[in-house]
Specification:
Blueprint lengths: L1 H32 L2 H9 L5 H9 L1 H36 L4 H34 L1 H36 L14 H14 L4 H12 L5 H4 L1 E2 L6 E2 L4 H11 L3 E6 L2 E10 H9 L7 H4 L4 E4 L4 H11 L3 E5 L5 E6 H9 L16 E4 L2 E5 L4 H8 L11 H9 L8 E15 L2 E14 L7 H7 L3 H21 L6
Parallel strand pairs: 2-3, 5-6
Antiparallel strand pairs: 1-7, 3-4, 6-7, 8-9, 9-11, 10-11
Helix pairs in contact: 1-4, 1-5, 1-6, 2-3, 3-6, 4-5, 4-6, 5-6, 7-8, 10-11
Length: 483
Amino acid sequence: MVAVALSVSRVVAALVLVVLNGFFVASEFAFVRVRSTSVDQLVADGRPGANALADVMGSLDDYLAATQLGITIASLGLGWIGEPAVAALIEPVLGSLLPANIVHLVAFAIGFSVITFLHVVFGELAPKTIAIAQAERVAMLLAPPMKLAYYLFAPGIVVFNGTANLFTRAIGVPPASETDETMEEREIRRVLARSGEAGHVDDEEVEMVNAVFELDDTVVREAMVPRPDVASIPADADLDAIRATVLEAGHTRYPVVAADDADRVVGFVDTKDVLRAGEAGEASTTAADLARDLVIVPETTSLSDLLVQFRDERRQMAAVVDEWGAFEGIATVEDAVETLVGDLRDEFDPESGDHAVRKSGAGAYEADGSVSLSAVNDALGTEFDGDGFETLGGLVLDRLGRSPEVGDSVTAGDYAFAVTAADGARISTVRIEETGDETTGDGSKSGDEASHSGAGDDERGDGDDERDEGDERDEGDERGDGA
């Protein structure tokens, strides 16, 4: 009778150890699952157990060590007490059914199986699942008793952690925290991508956050309005000439260039100043008189730095210059924002697809020469990468190796790119056709190009003269983006 009572008490002790094991397992998973930012909000809301949880999160590495120590002690105790207790209870029953020489072996196997089942299911898996599913609730519930366990285990934690750290240092591995909540950029991108695929975050939001990360890697040259598209005003232009440019271009701000040097930007004119000057009847006022200071940045400046400069200097537009100081184009706050959210158009902007790749038939597309390579890659599923150029026109010019003419054609990858319109040395529009040939060379000329190129030096010279005249017209005719 005494033996049976002893066995029952051992079984009860084993069940208590299973519960303790589950307590430490649930505590470990719940504490790791809860974010410190969530704990701050729980404390602010006055939730029961939130303050104790905040204390735990403040020394989380030590508390995790306490949970691991508790799990180890409970598991060892369960193996020491549980199996013999169960075996002792069932041996009398098995004695009347089995030969005496195998009773203990069978009782041991059954006892081991029962304890393992209880340990794994109720001491590990169930607590872990509950803690993960209800992390905040479980963490607040278990934090107060876990603080008591932490104080009980504190001497052991100091010894074990200290010994482990000495060992890892001896083999050249520095101690690391188990609770670092920070993530690198690539990890954040992966989390966002998975969240987008699961439908927890909108695809547009994923794209926008990715674009924010790319701001620091995107240079102004990739987002600026190139000089041929810029509506600039000569410094000696009078009010009538300024008004004419404003009415034609329809922008708010215009760069002012020196009267004798279109490569030198001297400031910018705001249409508000033009209106004020007109109201004041200052007929002799010129663009130089109205010009305000303009931010001037190199074309290699990152967009993130440009936005910071806009904010600090309270400006909306910057002139972009190359390494020799020549005027290359302008960049505005809108240009930077468009890299995040896409093309922005107001009610005065023309409805056109100039900055998009437009499908024009089976395997055929039309695009403006100023379309970015990234837009081309998105539309075609290609991976064209420019070295010194950012646009479709730059790709064609790079492979062509000379000034373009209508009919010129080059190939890249599985596509042929034909010039359908050109303005001097600038490619206006391009027709893209799928060839199905994996060509990676510098491109080939079409039959039209061959006949065009074979017309002789005189024709080429005439073309050069015409392009020079076209360039002169461009300087006075530039249109572009204001703010």
